[in-house]
Amino acid sequence: PNYPTPPSDLTFPPAFHWGVATSAYQIEGGAKDGGRGPSIWDTYSHTPGKVLNGDTGDVACDHYHRMESDLDLIKSLGVDSYRFSIAWPRVQPLGYGAWNEEGLAFYDRLVDGLLARGIAPHITLYHWDLPQGLQDQGGWESRQTAVHFAEYARVMGQRLGARAASICTHNEPWCTAVLGNELGRFAPGFKDTKIMLRVAHHLLLSHGLALQAMRAAGVKAPLGIVLNMSPSTPASDSAADIAMAKRDYAQFVRWYMDPIFLQQYPSGPDLPVCDVVQAGDLATIAQPMDFLGVNYYTRLWCSSATPPVAPPNAMGVSDMGWENYPQGLTDLLVQIHGDYTLPPIYITENGFANADSVVDGRVSDAPRIDYMRTHLQALKAAMDKGVDVRGFFYWSLMDNYEWDSGYAKRFGLFHVDYSSQVRTAKDSAHWYTALIGQHRKA
Ligand code: PNW
């Protein structure tokens, strides 16, 4: 077949890394297998009314039982890097106390299987699946959870660190804090700003404690964190819209970046204050980092009008309803490069949800290819302006459990048929492979 091909001038440095990303709860399934304990997402997804169509991650892509063949899929793309997360309750069922050797062995096999295929393992320690045993003791609202997390990080760092290309503590703490504890869209489902602020602080504290614990234990892998980020655009030049854009950016980006890189929280008359910050916490949070992971999907569009003014690109939205705005990736990277002294950056997620279906063995997903091409061009523009970016991970390897949207939103380079578990390469997978191949020849 004639697959769409990338433009020949879309080129990156020879050492640039190409990857795909996934997370444990979204692909593994095997929720009760191999001694895995329950996570807050098991509890949440099994609570009626929380997730679209009542979908759960019980089976998901059944990756827990199909790991070897999924590694072959990754290999077939031609990528050199794979980002995945460890399900904490699989390796430590309660989040404290006993370790589960069968769970640890699963991730040993995953890492070894990647290395055997010449693919670098990039490990995320926390992609939202907190052991329910810790939620029962207060979850991230409790300072003690940060202490347990540091111990979990130390054990995983010692077990896998020598074979890992990188270890990141958290994926998108904003999502955990805000979507999980203020907006009630994600597990554990609270709607309370005071809890959200405590959770955000304990996530950041746990990041700092985990870096300290892994370094003290001699873990040599590069260590960092993954944050979701967007630049913000006021809908007009009215004072209200400009103030809104500034405040939204402070809560979305600076709330995490400032503590880590400037050792302080943003403050101002329109910003909240967290009530659990103790002396010394900010110094703990601001540990030096070896890399920063940036997840970018869209920009923040800030309209204070009622009803809000829609963004100009409202036509180019994905299935998530997210505006297709590649310029935002350039703008964001240039902005943070100017505001902070940063370690090397990886784009740890960027991707597009589309209503894909298999027709005669083929998945024609032109909107995704368009999204990938324009965002990679935008990334290249930021690098040309001096931003140090070392790699790009497409979200996601395959269609998977999209949290409160269940299986309805498809981000994958591989289409997944959830009744047969058959994976089919989409046109975008062929396009990505061609793009990577273009670099291997050069
Ligand atoms: C990220 N929002 O999630 C996650 O890291 C992935 O697990 C997820 O599948 C991917 O992006 C696609 O959604 C987000 O509503 C979920 O702003 C929601 C939001 C942002 C990121």
From TrEMBL:
<keyword id="KW-0136">Cellulose degradation</keyword>
<protein>
    <recommendedName>
        <fullName>Beta-glucosidase</fullName>
        <ecNumber>3.2.1.21</ecNumber>
    </recommendedName>
</protein>
<dbReference type="GO" id="GO:0008422">
    <property type="term" value="F:beta-glucosidase activity"/>
</dbReference>
<dbReference type="InterPro" id="IPR018120">
    <property type="entry name" value="Glyco_hydro_1_AS"/>
</dbReference>
<feature type="binding site">
    <location>
        <begin position="402"/>
        <end position="403"/>
    </location>
    <ligand>
        <name>substrate</name>
    </ligand>
</feature>
<dbReference type="InterPro" id="IPR001360">
    <property type="entry name" value="Glyco_hydro_1"/>
</dbReference>
<dbReference type="InterPro" id="IPR017736">
    <property type="entry name" value="Glyco_hydro_1_beta-glucosidase"/>
</dbReference>
<dbReference type="GO" id="GO:0030245">
    <property type="term" value="P:cellulose catabolic process"/>
</dbReference>
<dbReference type="InterPro" id="IPR033132">
    <property type="entry name" value="GH_1_N_CS"/>
</dbReference>
<feature type="binding site">
    <location>
        <position position="297"/>
    </location>
    <ligand>
        <name>substrate</name>
    </ligand>
</feature>
<feature type="binding site">
    <location>
        <position position="171"/>
    </location>
    <ligand>
        <name>substrate</name>
    </ligand>
</feature>
<feature type="binding site">
    <location>
        <position position="26"/>
    </location>
    <ligand>
        <name>substrate</name>
    </ligand>
</feature>
<comment type="similarity">
    <text>Belongs to the glycosyl hydrolase 1 family.</text>
</comment>
<keyword id="KW-0378">Hydrolase</keyword>
<feature type="active site" description="Nucleophile">
    <location>
        <position position="349"/>
    </location>
</feature>
<feature type="active site" description="Proton donor">
    <location>
        <position position="172"/>
    </location>
</feature>
<feature type="binding site">
    <location>
        <position position="395"/>
    </location>
    <ligand>
        <name>substrate</name>
    </ligand>
</feature>
<dbReference type="InterPro" id="IPR017853">
    <property type="entry name" value="GH"/>
</dbReference>
<keyword id="KW-0624">Polysaccharide degradation</keyword>
<dbReference type="Pfam" id="PF00232">
    <property type="entry name" value="Glyco_hydro_1"/>
</dbReference>
<feature type="binding site">
    <location>
        <position position="127"/>
    </location>
    <ligand>
        <name>substrate</name>
    </ligand>
</feature>
<keyword id="KW-0119">Carbohydrate metabolism</keyword>
<keyword id="KW-0326">Glycosidase</keyword>
